[in-house]
């Protein structure tokens, strides 16, 4: 796989000469002011286009004008911007994304979009970048006209320097999104625990301090809950450790933990066949953490952050773990395995423990495609948030709203905890049918020390989305996580 970071080059300028010159129209307002000069030069063709037909500036609408020869652009495009009052960051991103969706394959190479402010320019650029992601490395027969033609986008605004500065951290986060998407999209024969670990090692080029532990090292640490999940796989389980030391030396880190089940067959508690291929995305939590670490390093955030990912493959095999097995976790607590398909919590509990044994975290946030139940609760537009800290809930909720990767808090409590009692061990790895996402969170909580601020984000519904999607989310994998987490860390811990 090669990662196609930024195959579309995005720049900011006060003016631009491009094949397509795009302008944003306010809903119901006719010709955008920025298009006036080109309109005059074209003899009023743009005015004619926006006043004919059904175009009225609604989000997602475009009109294209063929310009006479000799002008600065070959096409003028007026893009619907909706009502200016409603043009928040999401709506601004949608302008860039809808434009890419409509014109990436147009045959033209360069485009400009005129924005009203530096902030809007940066958000249009983010939307354009998110929308121009493609995962087509496994197609061998693509003809040139099946690939995007657009390779350069200039976002025009009065203060390109300010736009560039506003874009830089957002750009880093979207590079993290790209990486998370690539990892989730990749097929499980090519992305398994060992190759995922190799990808993590590549990140040391960005200044991350990277270490990978194999099965021997994890056995020494007593991580038998994690190791039990991977014992049916021919691939060696791994734990990836990524450190970003951008803060003061010795300052306690923020810790991110990710579930990296590179493929989840369910194990001996085998999943049904139809749809099982989706479980190549069961490392979405680890992808989110890895993408975030990349983003943080690229943005050079002045904070210490540690990313920990537990990488395993959950396979049925003669050596696989059985329902009924009792494993001892690194924390010393024992777990009765009642369902080998409830494996994510077994991976996370040992990595969470590692985090607390080796660091004094300011906060731990874990991300995991943990339960099908969260998809039933929240669908695809919010991830489930579980936390022992109201402040953390508030911080993460705000960051999610700011970047469009939303979380919704669900309850926890001792009544739910009692559902994971076992007759044979300290706990069992499933609850009953009721409150499946909450009992999973209660399981994790048993591995978090009371004084540690901790949040668990269940991204089973948001890591990938089938069906109709936002133009900022063009591939199967959404790349959920890096935008939320980078923003959360920058706003609260830098
Ligand atoms: N990886 C799955 C959860 C999942 C389901 C993610 C659908 C994305 C989409 C997880 O390992 C799992 O199998 N969970 C079980 C838990 C059950 C056995 C208690 C589930 O949700 O059915
Ligand atoms: Mn499972
Ligand atoms: Zn799983």
Could you characterize the architecture of this molecule?
The chain has 494 residues and is of the alpha/beta class. The protein folds into 2 domains: 2-158, Leucine Aminopeptidase, subunit E, domain 1, CATH 3.40.220; 173-492, Zn peptidases (Aminopeptidase). It has helices at 36-41, 45-51, 89-103, 118-131, 160-185, 193-202, 215-220, 224-230, 284-299, 344-358, 372-378, 390-403, 414-417, 436-445, 482-492, and strands at 9-13, 20-25, 62-66, 75-80, 110-114, 152-156, 209-213, 238-245, 254-264, 304-314, 326-328, 334-336, 363-368, 383-387, 407-409, 427-428, 454-458. Strands 7-8-10-9-13-17-14-15 form an 8-stranded mixed beta sheet, sandwiched between helices. Strands 1-6-5-2-4-3 form a 6-stranded mixed beta sheet, sandwiched between helices. Helix 5 packs antiparallel against helix 9 and helix 10 runs parallel beside helix 14. The protein is elongated and about 85 Å long. The site of manganese (II) ion has 4 residues, from loops.
Tags for this model:
alpha/beta, Leucine Aminopeptidase, subunit E, domain 1, Aminopeptidase, 2 domains, six-stranded mixed beta sheet, 15 helices, elongated, binds ligand BES, binds manganese (II) ion, binds zinc ion
């Amino acid at each position: 796989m090669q990662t196609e970071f930024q195959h579309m080059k995005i720049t900011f300028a006060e003016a631009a000469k491009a094949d397509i010159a795009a302008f944003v129209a306010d809903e119901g307002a006719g010709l955008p002011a920025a298009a006036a000069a080109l309109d005059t030069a074209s003899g009023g063709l743009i005015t004619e286009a926006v006043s004919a037909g059904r175009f009225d500036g609604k989000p997602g609408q475009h009109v294209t004008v063929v310009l006479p020869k000799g002008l600065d652009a070959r096409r003028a495009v007026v893009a619907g911007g909706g009502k200016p009052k409603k043009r928040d960051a999401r709506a601004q991103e949608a302008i860039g994304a809808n434009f890419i969706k409509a014109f990436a394959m147009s045959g033209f190479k360069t485009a400009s979009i005129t924005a009203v402010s530096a902030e809007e320019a940066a958000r249009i650029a983010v939307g354009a970048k998110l929308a121009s992601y493609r995962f087509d490395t496994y197609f061998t027969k693509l003809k040139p006209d099946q690939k995007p033609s657009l390779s350069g986008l200039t976002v025009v605004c009065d203060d390109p320097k300010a736009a560039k500065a506003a874009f830089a951290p957002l750009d880093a986060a979207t590079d993290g999104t790209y990486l998370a998407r690539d990892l989730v999209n990749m097929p499980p024969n090519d992305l398994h625990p060992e190759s995922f670990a190799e990808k993590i090692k590549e990140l040391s080029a960005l200044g991350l301090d990277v270490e990978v532990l194999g099965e021997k090292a994890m056995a020494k640490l007593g991580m038998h809950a994690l190791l039990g999940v991977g014992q049916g796989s021919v691939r060696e389980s791994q734990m990836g450790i990524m450190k970003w030391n951008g803060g003061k030396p010795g300052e306690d880190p923020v810790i991110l933990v990710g579930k990296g089940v590179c493929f989840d067959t369910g194990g001996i508690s085998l999943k049904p066949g139809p749809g099982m291929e989706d479980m190549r995305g069961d490392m979405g939590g680890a992808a989110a953490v890895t993408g975030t670490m990349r983003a943080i390093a690229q943005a050079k955030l002045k904070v210490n952050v540690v990313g920990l990912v537990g990488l395993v493959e959950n396979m049925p095999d003669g050596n696989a773990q059985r329902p009924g097995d009792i494993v001892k976790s690194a924390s010393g607590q024992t777990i009765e395995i009642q369902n080998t398909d409830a494996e994510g919590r077994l991976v996370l509990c040992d990595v969470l423990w590692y985090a607390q044994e080796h660091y004094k975290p300011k906060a731990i946030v874990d991300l995991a495609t943990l339960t099908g139940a969260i998809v039933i609760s929240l669908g695809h537009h919010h991830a489930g948030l579980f936390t022992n800290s109201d402040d953390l809930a508030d911080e993460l909720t705000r960051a999610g709203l700011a970047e469009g990767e939303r979380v919704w808090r669900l309850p926890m409590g001792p009544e739910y905890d009692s559902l994971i009692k076992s007759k044979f061990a300290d706990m069992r790895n499933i609850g009953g049918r009721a409150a499946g996402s909450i009992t999973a969170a209660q399981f994790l909580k048993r591995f978090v020390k009371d004084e540690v601020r901790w949040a668990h984000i269940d991204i089973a519904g948001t890591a990938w989305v089938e069906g109709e999607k936002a133009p900022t989310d063009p591939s199967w994998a959404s790349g959920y996580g890096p935008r939320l987490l980078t923003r959360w860390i920058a706003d609260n811990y830098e």
